[in-house]
Amino acid sequence: MLRIVVAKPGLDGHDRGAKVVARALRDAGHEVIYTGLHQTPEQIVETAIQEDADLIGLSVLSGAHMTLFKRLIELLDERDSRDIVVFGGGIVPDEDLPVLEELGVAKVFTPGATTTEITDWVAAEFPDA
């Protein structure tokens, strides 16, 4: 069983997708900590460290994905916690996906991704969990 923090950073107030993903991950047998709306990258990293999380999943629909993911990765580096895998979902243009991957984001699920795709990816990345 993995411990996964699902978070909604920034000012975006639409969390239905994050809640659906959190439930799907929980139903797949993982322990999920949902942080709620309007979290800062600092709050998300602190929660992940305190909860001894294996993964952080960000849901970003606000268009601020580049800034938010970059800051989150920087904070994980500063806290010597890059062993926490970062993935995300939301409205992210295709041209930004390689840049996010370069930053260290393991996977980004764009609109239309199913919960099965997400849970299957987690299972494939962590086969022993």
UniProtKB/TrEMBL annotation:
Its cofactor is adenosylcob(III)alamin. Residues 1-129 form the B12-binding domain. InterPro entries: Acid_CoA_mut_C, Cobalamin-bd, Cobalamin-bd_sf. Keywords: Cobalamin, Cobalt, Isomerase, Metal-binding. It holds the Pfam family B12-binding. PROSITE patterns: B12_BINDING (PS51332). GO terms for molecular function: cobalamin binding; isomerase activity; metal ion binding. This is Cobalamin B12-binding domain-containing protein. It comes from Nocardioides marmorisolisilvae.
